[in-house]
Design a protein that fits this description.
With about 450 residues, the chain is an alpha/beta fold. The chain is built from 14 helices and 15 strands. It has two domains: about 150 residues, Alpha-Beta Complex (Aspartate Aminotransferase, domain 1); about 270 residues, Aspartate Aminotransferase, domain 2 (3-Layer(aba) Sandwich). Strand 10 and strand 11 form a beta hairpin. The chain is globular and about 65 Å long.
Length: about 450
């Protein structure tokens, strides 16, 4: 029997009971269930870094607005398919004040979380032009996005951004787009899982090639404003959240309220379609939709068929949060800045105990401290590393599950780790390093 912080035989038993044989392929939910079972039996608390869910309370302004809306009876009334008008205006205003982009409210759509938005965006984009049926992923990525393409039967291609930062991105991206089969491309910024942030130069490359090949860019902004190296907290004043929207008019923004407003349970987000793309017409759309206009096909074809509109009361909650942010009453960036503060401490503890960063720079600048970071331990593969850490009371996920080519690394999420657990984390990492320093 080995001497580890969590009883070795207990951990081994639960791994076998769940049939986990390759931690490099284990999903977030599988890791979560394993740790739940071990914690329940032992009463010992894990440093849980596997789940990318908010660890802060939702703002009261949104909660109270949604309660008030329910009391007025909105739950018995269908919302307009494209969203309540005050919310559409506030989304447009938010994009203007925090991104510097002008978008007509008609292209600002509430969605049932940004995952519904990506599903609808994939579905509609591949029907815009006949012969363009493929989505390009700039990896690493949120794994469910590829799952969405699989269940829709949409072909996809991908490459890892790791070796193609800065000017190197142009040639790599052009090689994919020049084939003529790509309908749209997607990436997240800041990135889940790597927390790299695309630079202005890289976004300009993406935008210019989008224009050159008429490809729709889907920008996943789940972690809006959370590159804490630049303060995007003051409405109407630069610096703004960087975006491909500054370099192309062929874009869809997916803005979540789950992390930025800690509002994950209400499943409400925003899809922002640029004016040019919303109004673009293609007769090829009429193979599947009644309209040849992209925006109408998206709205009355794809979104209507998926949900017939986002939850009525949740729209009022989001409206109140956006208005408070737009008016400068609620500083949403300062609230979530706690993630960056925790990440700085946690990264230091890992690095002091033999770990190294995987994705560590945005071109020449060290990456920001934020919601995620990625590390590896020399001599151990990603799956092996995850499994070994389970015995030390630390949980995370392998980068292999996020389509990264850096298979030796793991993704650590800081959101659910309480500051009171930092001494435990340090103690367990030192123990791990002592046991594995000779690997």
């Amino acid at each position: 029997m080995k001497n580890t912080p969590i009883p070795y035989e207990t951990v081994r038993k639960h791994i076998e009971q769940l049939g986990l044989t390759d931690f490099g392929r284990s999903t977030i939910r599988e890791i979560r269930r394993l740790v739940d079972h071990i914690e329940e039996e032992t009463g010992m608390r894990y440093v849980r870094m596997e789940m990318g869910i908010p660890g802060l309370p939702a703002p009261n302004v949104g909660i109270e607005a949604e309660i008030a809306a329910l009391k007025t009876g909105v739950s018995s009334v269908y919302p307009d398919i494209d969203g309540i008008k005050p919310l559409k205006k506030e989304i447009s205003r938010f994009v203007k004040l925090f991104m510097g982009l002008d978008v007509d409210p008609k292209g600002c759509l509430p969605i049932v979380g940004s995952m519904q938005g990506s599903f609808a965006a994939f579905l509609t984009s591949v029907k815009l032009f006949k012969g363009r049926d493929t989505i390009l992923f700039i990896d690493p990525c949120f794994p469910v996005h590829k799952q969405q393409c699989r269940i829709l039967g949409i072909p996809f291609e991908s490459f890892d951004i790791y070796n193609y930062r800065g000017d190197k991105l142009y040639e790599k991206l052009d090689a994919y787009l020049s084939k003529g089969n790509i309908a749209g491309m997607i990436y997240s910024n800041p990135n889940n899982p790597s927390w790299i942030c695309f630079t202005e130069k890289e976004l300009q490359i993406i935008g210019e090639l989008s224009n050159k090949y008429s490809v729709v860019v889907m920008e996943d902004l789940a972690y809006f404003g959370m590159d804490f190296r630049r303060d995007c907290s003051v409405p109407g004043e630069p610096p703004y959240q960087v975006s491909v929207g500054n370099f192309t008019d062929h874009y869809i923004l997916l803005i979540s309220s789950s992390k930025v407003f800690s509002n994950a349970g209400q499943r409400i987000g925003m899809m922002v379609i640029s004016d040019a793309l919303f109004n673009e017409r293609s007769d090829d759309l009429q193979r599947y939709y009644k309209s040849n206009q992209f925006g109408r096909a998206m709205l009355f074809g794809s979104i209507y068929a998926l949900t017939a509109g986002a939850t009525h009361s949740a729209q009022y909650g989001l409206l109140a949060m956006l208005k408070a942010a737009n008016d400068g009453v609620y500083d949403f960036v300062e609230v979530v800045r706690e993630y960056g503060r925790k990440a700085a401490i946690m990264k230091r503890l890992f690095l002091e105990n033999g770990f190294r960063l995987v994705y560590e720079k945005d071109e020449d600048e060290p990456i920001a401290d934020g919601f995620y970071f990625t590390v590896y331990y020399p001599g151990l593969g990603g799956g092996e590393l995850i499994e070994k850490l389970i015995y030390y009371g630390i949980s995370a996920i392998s980068l292999a599950t996020t389509c990264s080519e850096q298979r030796d690394g793991l993704r650590a999420c800081v959101s659910l780790v309480d500051r009171s657990q930092f001494p435990d984390l340090e103690h367990r990492l030192k123990w791990f390093h002592t046991d594995h320093g000779g690997v």
